[in-house]
Amino acid sequence: MTDHDVTDFDLLRKRVSSFVRDRVFPVEQVLDAGGPPAGDLRERLREEARKAGLWALPLPAELGGGGLPLSAYASLAEAEGASDHGPAALGSASLLDATMLARHGSARVRSAYLPGVVSGGLHTCYAMTEPDAPGTEPALTATRAERLPGGGWLVTGRKWFVSNAGHADLVTVLARTSGSPGDRTGLSLLLVPTASPGFRVLRELPILGATGQYEIEFDGVAVAGDHLVGDTGQALAIASERLQLGRTLRALRWLGQAQRAFDLLCDRAAERQGVRGPLADRQLVQQHLFEALLALRTTRPLVYEAMALVADGRDAHVEVGLAKTAAARTLQDVADRAVQVFGAAGLGPDTPLPALFRTGRTARILDGPDEQHVSSVARRVLRSRRTSPPRSTAPS
């Protein structure tokens, strides 16, 4: 990258950061509330992003996106993620679905849906977890897809904690096309238009008071044969590919929110005056600031290392597990420290801290709980040591 390229990219990052700060931050409460007002406002923000040349920066240029490679997009993802609503407002929220459909969708699916997904005209969601089958155990999936005589599929089952299902046009559903719950084989992904007869949104599932998660039902939904994503039985491989990128993107966005909480903490400490002077002079407040900064500075390299490996197409299971867990913990920790420095004001509606803390707490469960990543990373590290030649401990 030339000096000119670096300068241009730094300017682009500043523009993204300014858009999120100036256009998205002020309307977060309306967007959090959901409903038609939130939908209308979201569309206005998207139109502003298009006019500003900031729309869908990491999505394919030939489909109307910015065409940025993942390696370059990483710092922009952190800037966008300073608000939960930043990626949707700037058109990058569909990156996972667009990537999955571009790589594994049929020719008809790619031509019929990809342009709309990238342009923002079609909204997507991903349905994996079931009420009686935790997301950490996809082999227990009970939702079934049975072959129809004409070559299509008939999908029956329920999913829950499906992000954005309330206004989605397309849902990618993990379903069992053969075998029984408990089998790791026989799982496939199908792309289902939500206008199909038999598809229903059963209820919204607020998470610690926040909207955006839903329980949905497939009551004998007919799906065309060419709406299979990948081959039959290939779901877990595609899901693993998707999860590595998805978890890393979330970690980058959580970093952006942790940085936001840290900035609020610093501003409060510097500006708040007490009878004994500013909060910044108190050692316990200084300790909160130090610990928050330490968490940010030690987590950021982990997350960027994971993104570099994912962008390069290399195995990154260990790095992604470390990054996801560290970023979730950092967001919760930094937001908690900022709330403590704000005092009662940090619990109320006048700052974004309650929402930031809520995101941090849910982050430790969504996309795999901490415990899953701890065990998975430990097993991989120990397995690699068992299969590698022993290291010499003799002095050189």
Automatic annotation (TrEMBL):
Keywords: FAD, Flavoprotein, Oxidoreductase
EC nos: 1.-.-.-
Keyword Calcium (UniProt): no
Domain Acyl-CoA dehydrogenase/oxidase N-terminal: from-to ranges: 10-120
Top-level taxonomic group: Bacteria
Ranges where the Acyl-CoA oxidase/dehydrogenase middle domain occurs: 125-221
Cofactor: FAD
Renumbered residue ranges of the record's region Disordered: 368-396
Enzymatic class: oxidoreductase
Keyword Flavoprotein attached: yes
UniProt domain Acyl-CoA dehydrogenase/oxidase C-terminal: residue ranges: 237-382
A Gene Ontology molecular function term of the record: oxidoreductase activity
Pfam families: Acyl-CoA_dh_1, Acyl-CoA_dh_M, Acyl-CoA_dh_N
Family, as annotated: Belongs to the acyl-CoA dehydrogenase family.
PANTHER family (UniProt xref): ACYL-COA DEHYDROGENASE FAMILY MEMBER 11, MEDIUM-CHAIN SPECIFIC ACYL-COA DEHYDROGENASE, MITOCHONDRIAL-RELATED
Subunit architecture: Homodimer.
Protein name: Acyl-CoA dehydrogenase family protein
